[in-house]
Design brief:
By secondary structure, the protein is an alpha/beta fold. The chain has a single domain, classed as Vaccinia Virus protein VP39 (Rossmann fold, 3-Layer(aba) Sandwich). The protein is about 35% helix and about 20% strand. Strands 3-2-1-4-5-7-6 form a seven-stranded mixed β-sheet, sandwiched between helices. The longest helix is centred in the N-terminal third of the chain and has 20 residues. About 35% of the residues are buried. Bound molecules: S-adenosylmethionine. The site of S-adenosylmethionine has 23 residues, from helix 1, helix 2 and strand 2.
């Protein structure tokens, strides 16, 4: 019997386990919180909804989502946090003991371990550009989303924010650097409807004594935050209903 050859996901898992062990989960919360909260407001979540947090890391955003969909007149909402790093999942579970509507699952965006037509909303924060096969991840998202479900992909690394390109070389794993227009086309190719892209700036001030190793200067960091993250949104069409004027006999 031969050993299975390593997959691109194996390299990502190792790298993000290192991040988790180095306490990067908490740091990411500090860096991504403002843009994520703005995005969550746009998600218009309500009690009873089923939400996926794809690439959930240490689970801080999963917990924000869980508070918004919890028990209410519409029922009892649930949030699934999915991540490729088992160490991130372990940390997320440890920090979410008070929540009874969160389930953390270790798995890959390339093969989402969930049934089809399930999630009303999907959030993915700063994770999508790492997926080796983004086409496959989008097919999987389309499969697990409910008809009329809404997808929200938030990324800080994209071609149209030139300052984001300053830290690509520091990453130890391969990433995709696409433009907004390319991402919009990619989502449309996967049959997502109402595809939209917008910018989510981080308007928190950067103090003059802030230390950055990711950017060439504080002015570059400020410009990066001003341009903002790219938010891609789309809907899964309701394939159960025939188009207007079209009757199935
Ligand atoms: C930069 S971190 C962001 C984590 C979290 N969303 C946050 O904002 O704090 C990227 C996350 O994506 C996860 N990830 C990378 N590739 C993945 C894949 N193929 N499937 C699922 N998760 C993946 C990593 O393990 C990591 O936790």
């Amino acid at each position: 019997m031969t050993d299975k050859p390593p997959t691109p996901d194996d390299g990502l898992q190792e790298e993000f386990n290192r991040w988790a062990a180095a306490g990067e989960g908490e740091k990411m919360e500090r860096h991504h919180r403002v843009i994520t909260e703005k995005t969550i407001r746009l998600m218009d979540l309500g009690p009873g909804e089923r939400v996926l947090d794809l690439g959930c890391g240490s689970g801080w955003a999963t917990r924000l989502l869980a508070r918004l969909v919890g028990e209410g007149p519409e029922g009892f909402g649930q949030v699934v946090g999915l991540d490729l790093s088992d160490e991130m999942i372990r940390q997320a579970r440890a920090a979410s003991k008070d929540f009874d509507n969160i389930l953390y699952v270790w798995g890959s965006a390339q093969q989402i371990p969930w049934e089809e037509n399930f999630f009303d909303k999907v959030l993915s924060v700063e994770s999508f550009y790492y997926y080796p096969d983004q086409d496959r991840a989008l097919s999987e998202l389309f499969r697990v989303m409910a008809p009329q479900g809404r997808l929200f992909i938030l990324i800080n690394l994209y071609q149209d924010n030139p300052y984001s390109l300053e830290w690509v070389d520091k990453l130890k794993v391969p990433v995709h650097v696409r433009s907004e227009a390319e991402y919009v086309e990619l989502l449309r190719k996967h049959a997502f409807a109402k595809v939209q892209a917008c910018r989510i700036p981080d308007d928190t001030p950067t103090p003059d004594n802030y230390q950055t190793t990711s950017f060439r200067s504080l002015d570059d960091l400020r410009a990066f935050k001003r341009i903002g993250a790219l938010l891609l949104a789309g809907s899964k069409p309701d394939l159960r209903n025939p188009a207007p004027g079209y009757t199935i006999y």
